[in-house]
């Protein structure tokens, strides 16, 4: 990427870092990295922001979502102001307190991103009652409810809130005890006593006295648990990450100092990212609240079926910053090439694009930049970083418009990175006010997660972008647990090679899982993107197996494998065999999250027979370099 390119002006906060070198108890060289910019003060509790904006801008829209019509379509926007949000939070929060809910008996939320979901979350935050938004897929896609049952057994909720009785009723009946209060936004569950959300909203809040919601709000301390967020889970069950008010408030301040553009005006977000994930639920909702912004809930998704709704919303609402995963940006980049209204609206005031979750293919970058330059005469900065559920979520951000695939940047203020050599790589570990105290009701998992100095072990490997200029920060070097050795003893660095396959295979490759543990060669299980169907020339109802077997797709993918082989420097980064998978990754088996992130270990575990067949040459359709 040329550094001479012109970008829409955006300021980065952390431009310099401090590095201290030492050695640990094992004698390994250790580096500690801090931002030179100090963290400074931040809010004691999330509700402080709600109180501020309800007074400073009571009529400003906090959340908006399109009306859900009877035919399944969406209508006009329904708006909830800051004053309305505070009023609803006090009313519902009072009702929750009257039910005796607490950290031992928290609220579990089964819902997509909705206005009712937002209300229940704000009520819990205001009243100091922990809540847990659960992946809707655990209740609506899963057939066995094992993960949902695990959530319920771990948290022992006193109340379960669901968006719709018809949609979530079966899962509730299978996993929620009869002694647990069930509240529905709409509908009913046959054979089960439930309450309506409206009945909670009808409760009159009390400002003083025992059990009063305003008294409870003032009793919330930085270490009070705000929510539980479950990790995505790999070969094990998801873990419940404690999120305190300190973590959340500190991280919002850290994000804002790192990306000052977020505070230059009240932000406008158009966002689909699920609130049961830390990116959507902590980062995006939290930033909206902190800065008195407006979050337009996007009912679309970066899927063939869901992208139309997202594009509709982006034609109408111009965001100030736009967040998405790489697949979403790929679809938007393609749509902007032919959609003048989309280009005009989306690019009218957006200061920054921000992606997370996976690597963004270079052709997508190039397309977004070319479209922006043609439309507005300058590029939009494409920012990214690194974080995790346990860091609330943000730990690092890039600090320059000159970003390349894999760059993750420098630590946020107040966060110390510890760089430790592990299995031939450099692991990054975290310590700071935004780091979780541990996993709820899981002392063993908590002990395992932290090292002897109290740093959170992330399992993420990093490298310096430029060892001669440490202020540029770090780049991602894969997940240490995903790396493996070939039979020759050669290490395969999965992260960089996986990213290379995705970039080279764009736009046909959605994701890839690398194989070859204790074998002579590296193989690849390739999950195809919807673009394969267009390339095949076959109809929309044609089975994916036939699409992948079509000559046009085979020819294009053969060219990808050949190109990868030409660029390889040895057995550790040469794809010797690959297979296109017609069966998509399974949420039930933990192969993919509802945000679309692939879990390498889970795919390898559940498709072990296919991996064996790939390397034994006994499965049809194998692609090899020519």
Automatic annotation (TrEMBL):
It comes from the Bacteria. GO terms for biological process: fatty acid metabolic process. Gene3D superfamilies: N-terminal domain of ligase-like (3.40.50.12780). InterPro entries: AMP-dep_synth/lig_dom, ANL_N_sf. SUPFAM superfamilies: Acetyl-CoA synthetase-like. GO terms for molecular function: medium-chain fatty acid-CoA ligase activity. Signal peptide: none annotated. Residues 52-440 form the AMP-dependent synthetase/ligase domain. Belongs to the ATP-dependent AMP-binding enzyme family. This is Feruloyl-CoA synthase.
């Amino acid at each position: 990427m040329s550094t001479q390119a012109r970008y829409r002006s955006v300021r980065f906060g952390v431009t310099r870092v401090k590095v201290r070198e030492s050695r640990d108890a094992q004698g390994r060289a250790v580096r500690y990295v801090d931002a030179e910019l100090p963290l400074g003060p931040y809010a004691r509790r999330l509700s402080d922001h709600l109180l501020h904006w309800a007074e400073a801008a009571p009529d400003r829209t906090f959340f908006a979502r399109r009306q859900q019509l009877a035919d399944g379509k969406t209508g006009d926007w329904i708006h909830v102001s800051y004053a309305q949000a505070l009023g609803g939070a006090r009313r519902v929060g009072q009702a929750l307190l009257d039910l005796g809910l607490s950290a031992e008996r928290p609220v579990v939320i089964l819902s997509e991103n909705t206005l009712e979901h937002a209300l229940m979350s704000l009520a819990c935050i205001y009243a100091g009652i922990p809540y847990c938004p659960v992946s809707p897929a655990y209740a609506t896609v899963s057939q066995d409810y094992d993960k949902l049952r695990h959530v319920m057994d771990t948290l022992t909720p006193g109340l379960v809130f669901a968006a719709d009785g018809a949609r979530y009723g079966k899962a509730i009946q299978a996993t929620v005890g009869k002694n647990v209060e069930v509240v529905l936004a709409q509908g009913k569950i046959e054979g089960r006593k439930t309450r309506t959300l409206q009945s909670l909203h009808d409760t009159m809040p009390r400002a003083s006295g025992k059990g009063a919601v305003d008294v409870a709000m003032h009793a919330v301390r930085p270490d009070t648990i705000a929510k539980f967020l479950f990790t995505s889970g790999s070969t094990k069950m998801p873990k419940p990450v404690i999120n305190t008010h300190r973590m959340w408030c500190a991280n919002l301040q850290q994000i804002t100092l790192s990306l000052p553009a977020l505070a230059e005006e009240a932000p406008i977000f158009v966002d689909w990212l699920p609130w049961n994930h830390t990116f959507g639920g902590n980062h995006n909702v939290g930033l909206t609240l902190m800065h008195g912004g407006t979050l337009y809930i996007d009912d679309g998704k970066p899927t063939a079926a869901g992208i139309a709704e997202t594009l509709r919303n982006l034609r109408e609402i111009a965001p100030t910053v736009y967040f998405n995963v790489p697949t979403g940006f790929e679809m938007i980049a393609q749509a902007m090439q032919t959609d003048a209204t989309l280009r005009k609206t989306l690019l009218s005031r957006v200061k920054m694009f921000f992606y997370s979750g996976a690597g963004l293919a270079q052709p997508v970058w190039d397309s977004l930049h070319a479209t922006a330059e043609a439309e507005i005469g300058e590029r939009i900065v494409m920012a990214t970083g690194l974080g995790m559920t346990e860091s609330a979520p943000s730990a690092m951000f890039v600090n320059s418009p000159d970003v390349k695939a894999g760059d993750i940047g420098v630590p946020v203020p107040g966060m110390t990175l510890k760089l430790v050599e592990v299995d031939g790589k450099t692991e990054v570990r975290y310590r700071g006010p935004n780091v979780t105290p541990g996993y709820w009701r899981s002392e063993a998992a908590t002990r395992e997660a932290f090292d002897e100095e109290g740093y959170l072990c992330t399992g993420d490997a990093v490298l310096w972008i430029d060892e001669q200029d440490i202020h540029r920060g770090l780049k991602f070097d894969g997940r240490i647990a995903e790396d493996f050795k070939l039979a020759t003893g050669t290490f395969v660095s999965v992260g960089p090679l996986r990213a290379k396959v995705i970039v080279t295979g764009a736009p046909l490759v959605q994701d890839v899982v690398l194989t070859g543990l204790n074998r002579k060669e590296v193989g690849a299980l390739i999950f195809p993107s919807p673009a394969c169907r267009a390339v095949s020339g076959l109809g929309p109802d044609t089975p994916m197996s036939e699409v992948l077997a079509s000559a046009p797709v085979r020819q294009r993918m053969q060219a990808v494998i050949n190109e990868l082989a030409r660029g390889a420097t040895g057995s550790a980064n040469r794809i010797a065999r690959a297979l296109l998978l017609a069966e998509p990754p399974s949420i039930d088996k933990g192969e993919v999250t509802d945000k679309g992130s692939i879990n390498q270990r889970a795919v390898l575990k559940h498709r072990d027979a296919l991996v064996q067949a790939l390397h034994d040459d006994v499965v049809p359709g194998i692609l090899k370099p020519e």
